[in-house]
Design goal:
Helix content is 41%, strand content 25%. It is built from 15 helices and 17 strands. The longest helix has 24 residues, at 403-426.
């Protein structure tokens, strides 16, 4: 295959077309392929239909070096991916003894008796034809997390990769078997760094980096907008890993110089809450939260981090004015004069939270998440306050979108505000 390879993604499943399941696999596989230096120009979703899947796969073979198909490897009659691919390639199916044994063991451990449908999952493409001639190279990817094995088929200069649909099966299989395989297809080494930032905003981020993006060739720079944050992936191709790393380093350094404290991590598996918990541990600080419109979402993100018990003490949900007064000692006159959705109340919530919880840091959120505007409070108006010791800051935000998106944005901004406040207080 050529050094620069194209990859195409086909997601299989009627449930994806109907919107019953969100296609998170496609986003994951796209990111991973980009990190490997593969070019992806096409991807599609096809229902559980033999003719339409065959057409989509045939078209993909005509324009891409690598085709990854996710889903449709299950035991039911509408799981057609493996059968359709083999039909198009002119390859037969044969039973794999280990795949059968693994499937039987998996189902037995769950207390199930394998049925005839289950055994079709042990069928894999045959590398030899009817007369014993080699027709393709078929590699079985045994599944540690389910009953359907994955498969890599190499035929006529193309590579076809079949992966199970459930994300908790697809992702581990890709990491363990597919990623190393894809990396081995190129003589060049690929090295990638993910910079994660929060608070700059997508349009401002592009403005700050536009000259680097316009001038990119090797390494390449790609930005991805997240809720409240953005990711920047820098990927370089080199003769070996050291060469690729050396190409990436100056670009990473320049981006860090431009974005400064907005960058919270270069670990793509680390979210803003992970970075905050790490920072709290570093400075031996305790944190508490006081939430109104986010309803405990900030606290939930914190406790989702392993080891959060070392730094998180209390989470108060003070949705009503009475709760704000009783739990956080927010002044009745402040509520009456400025309303519950105000900078003044947010600051008093943070002060009351840090005192009540006896913590070093407190986050407070109050706002109106909708679904409709009111006379006095437009949808998406949120005030966030952070107290670090005796210093209390507060900011006004206006978020757009659904009620859930507004709450998610507010929670992310609150966590980032606490991170920046701690840096300002302790890192200088």
């Amino acid at each position: 295959m050529e050094d620069t390879m194209t990859v195409e993604l086909i997601s299989v499943g009627t449930e994806l077309l109907l919107g019953n399941i969100v296609n998170t696999n496609a986003a994951y596989l796209s990111r991973e392929c980009a990190a490997l230096g593969l070019s992806m120009y096409n991807q599609c979703v096809v229902g559980d239909n033999n003719a339409r899947l065959a057409q989509a796969y045939t078209e993909a073979l005509g324009r891409s070096d690598i085709i990854i198909l996710g889903g449709g490897l299950g035991p039911t009659e509408d799981d057609l991916t493996k059968e359709t691919v083999c039909e198009v390639l002119g390859v037969g199916l044969t039973e794999d003894a280990k795949a059968r044994e693994d499937m039987e063991k998996w189902l037995t451990n769950l207390g199930h008796v394998p049925t005839a449908n289950n055994y079709k999952q042990a069928l894999v493409p045959s590398s030899t034809g009817e007369n014993g001639e080699i027709v393709c190279k078929s590699t079985v990817l045994y599944n540690d997390n389910g009953t359907a094995p994955g498969i890599i088929i190499e035929k006529d200069g193309h590579c076809t990769i079949l992966l199970p649909g459930p994300p908790d099966e697809l992702k581990p299989m890709f990491e363990k078997s597919v990623k190393p395989y894809l990396a081995s297809l190129s003589d060049d080494a690929i090295y990638s760094v993910m910079i994660r930032e929060c608070g700059t905003g997508e349009s401002n981020l592009e403005t700050k980096l536009i000259d680097l993006i316009d001038a990119q060739s090797n390494p390449t720079i790609a930005t991805y907008a997240k809720t409240g944050c953005c990711d920047i992936r820098i990927t370089a191709r080199g003769v070996d890993e050291d060469d690729a790393k050396n190409k990436v380093k100056p670009v990473v350094k320049e981006i860090k110089n431009r974005l400064k404290d907005a960058i919270y991590s270069t670990d793509e598996n680390e979210n803003i809450e992970d970075a905050l918990v790490k920072l709290l541990k570093k400075y031996d600080l305790k944190i508490s939260t006081a939430e109104s419109c986010t309803g405990g979402l900030v606290a939930a993100k914190l406790v989702n981090v392993s080891g959060a018990s070392q730094v998180f003490t209390h989470g108060f949900i003070t949705y009503s004015n009475k709760a704000k007064r009783k739990v956080l000692s927010v002044n009745r006159d402040t509520l009456k004069k400025y309303s519950a959705v105000s900078k003044e109340v947010a600051k008093e919530m943070a002060k009351g939270c840090i005192i009540t919880a006896d913590s070093d840091v407190a986050i407070a959120v109050t706002g109106y998440a909708g679904p409709e505007d009111t006379k006095d409070e437009p949808k998406g108006l949120v005030y966030i306050s952070c107290a670090v010791g005796d210093k209390v800051i507060a900011e006004k935000f206006k978020f757009n979108g659904t009620r859930a998106k507004i709450r998610e944005n507010a929670a992310v901004k609150a966590l980032n505000m606490a991170r920046l406040a701690i840096l300002a207080a302790y890192s200088k």
